[in-house]
């Protein structure tokens, strides 16, 4: 019986620790795939310490956790003392209030707070960015408070009240008696409450995810968007270091407690002392090892980074920047700007180098609809967005874009004639084309029979059940069905749309999952074999896995899209945003950017700087006869858009 | 301390809690009762909820199953820890706490790497000549994710109650002729009931509302209520329907935890927590 119990415990501990071991091993892997260990490297740690963004996020998390915990601890302890002395009925009410955030699911707390902040901030006070650092802090204090109160209350109950009375009899004021007597008695409760509040705050994802805006986010929120994109292994390195740190902190705090107890009962056997001694040795060795690793990494990290020299990277003369320092929020698709990896040019770093007074705060979305929801929900400031054609038309019709001042964007002259006076922005007032491309089917030629690759119906082929992916956004998903059925992609006919929804519903059993940016990893490691996606991203994937092929259903039709840079009406730094747009339109910058992004540039001038292989690629720049049946999505009308979105939600939410 | 002082000390707290827990819930109610397009008062959001009934049921079923598996797995562990020497108890307690402090997103992602068709387990099985077994994107994977993530929430409260059980009671039962199984069913188990209830609540609540676990480990059919709420807010651009769903989820959780607490008998305030 006892032995069985021990065995079960050991097995369950293994169960608890295996995933963490996987992550720690992955931090030493040269390959990017967590499931396949290629060879050993320390480089992830070096990359981690070169990445200011990631370290800033960690600092953000710590700032929020420390501030919210200290405020909640003081506030909560005071409140607990107050509540303890309240009349029973009031006390009951107070405890019920305290228990609400404890029993409420995190998602409800997050949703309710974000709605409150947007409602009060934006609707009532008319502020643009109501989701800021302060609202995040309020949210963290709110969910931390109950931990403190609920841990202090029992200690107050246990406390012998005659102690306080004695202190008062001896001449203490109530204040003095609190600081001289009460606080010592309830200290263990305060400490436990504070520790719990701190860990909850540091690791909170759900509430922060709903409450944070774009200016200030914490590490877990950003990790969530990392896990949607192909994850960068340096995140595993960070995990490993945090694991070691927390492990050490716990061991040390345990030893301190133990030491305290031993001082009290010194007589109790040497056995525990010996094992404590062993733990101390392990802890010290661990701390030393950690310090060495971190020290080396910082040393190498600081030596490794070289700032880019701007003049080499731009073709044009850049207009002067602002005199005072400003921050712009750039909100872009994931994997949609060269970030310095794989020997590319880090575009944002280059821009900040060119304009030392402009700081770029960069965040990503993975579909037009997510971007739209974020803007429409309100509460945030965004200065630059890069939506697609139909979404631009929608944003224009809803007065959500600002007219651009082209004096600040001289590089607009390089944009090709074909990409001007587009249907979504006929007067060229609101948008500057960034990239264009086609949507086709990516398939793995190792597993997929060429004979089956006949058109969009491949995505419904039962032969490949569970190996097919589908777009996780409504417009692309409906578009594919419409091309397959031969309907107009810009139809507003409810009957046709309902039929499409039915087809999507029928597709569900053969699908593995709905994806957006998660697609990269899944296709590259062959977890799935067939997926519709953007041509540019196919090129990125094919670099990693040459077995991947791309197919354009020319006979059925396919989407030709233009993604353009815009400034939404909630922008604060319009001029700096325009300078950023201008920078992106520099032919040399565009070439460097497209070299990594792999999408097609709307600037012919840029092609001379591109690798000839890329510039002549059939996939990036398909011949005109291939594009006969290509069409672009238009903004339908608010009513139909809502219907399509609701239908798609229904498809996804049904089981 | 004087009574008026206590009012003075507790009032700011009460105001804060009303402002940031009760009022936000009223705002949720307000959104739930307005039309997304026109902003007018409507019951439509709530009326349309019956379409989501299967999703609610599925969420409840998954989290109840997970909570019971957690109980079955957590009990022996908590029992084992509670019967170690104090130093070992502290250390083991710490080992249970530690995973809770690490990013649960990444830990769940590690399970994707373990379970997927081209993942670690299947690669290993492939070497042994056993063909890929599909594990990920099944209901089992979602339950596994829940059990893995929330098991510590079960172990810690169980341990806290088990360690407090007076050993003399066990001895008394033995003296009176109870065998091991009887001691457990008559003495230990009833005394650990508060811990069981707390543990089940602490597993059930986050499990019923999760969206990340089902997004990463579930398939297209495993849609949980958390997913639906998240999607309504983050991409469906229909916060009103999302608010209505949140409201129902909240009620569901309150009812379930209310029922659970009846089982435990009326617990003293603050009996919760590790």
Description:
The complex is a heterodimer of chains A (655) and B (274). Chain A is of the alpha/beta class and 655 residues long. Chain A has 4 domains: 20-49 and 234-305, no CATH class; 51-232, MetI-like (MetI-like fold), CATH 1.10.3720; 326-435 and 562-631, D-Maltodextrin-Binding Protein, domain 2 (3-Layer(aba) Sandwich), CATH 3.40.190; 437-560 and 635-653, D-Maltodextrin-Binding Protein, domain 2 (3-Layer(aba) Sandwich), CATH 3.40.190.10. Chain A has helices at 2-26, 43-50, 52-84, 88-103, 106-124, 133-158, 161-169, 174-203, 206-211, 219-228, 234-264, 271-304, 310-313, 347-354, 368-377, 389-397, 474-485, 494-507, 519-524, 535-544, 574-584, 587-597, 612-615, 638-653, and strands at 326-333, 358-365, 384-385, 432-444, 468-471, 511-515, 530-534, 548-551, 558-565, 630-631. In chain A, strands 4, 7, 8, 9 and 10 form a 5-stranded mixed β-sheet that branches. A 3-stranded parallel β-sheet of chain A has the order 2-1-3. In chain A, helix 14 links the parallel strand 1 (326-333) and strand 2 (358-365). The radius of gyration of chain A is 29 Å and the shape is globular. Chain B has 274 residues and is mainly α. Helices cover 75% and strands 0% of the residues of chain B. Chain B contains 13 helices and no strands. Chain B has helices spanning 3-32, 44-47, 53-82, 86-101, 104-115, 120-127, 139-164, 167-175, 180-191, 193-209, 212-217, 225-234, 239-264. In chain B, helix 7 runs antiparallel to helix 10, helix 10 runs antiparallel to helix 13 and helix 12 packs antiparallel against helix 13 (239-264). The longest helix of chain B has 30 residues, at 3-32. At the A-B interface, helix 1, helix 3, helix 4, helix 5 and helix 6 of A face helix 1, helix 3, helix 4, helix 5 and helix 7 of B.
Beta-strand proportion of chain B: under 5%
Rg over C-alpha atoms of chain B, rounded to the nearest angstrom = 23 Å
Tell how many strands the DSSP assignment of chain B holds.
Answer: 0
What structural class do you assign from the helix and strand content of chain B? Answer: mainly alpha
Rg of chain A: 29 Å
- Overall geometry of chain A comes to globular
* CATH architecture label name of the largest domain in chain A: Orthogonal Bundle
Give the CATH topology of the largest domain in chain A: MetI-like fold
Largest sheet of chain B: none
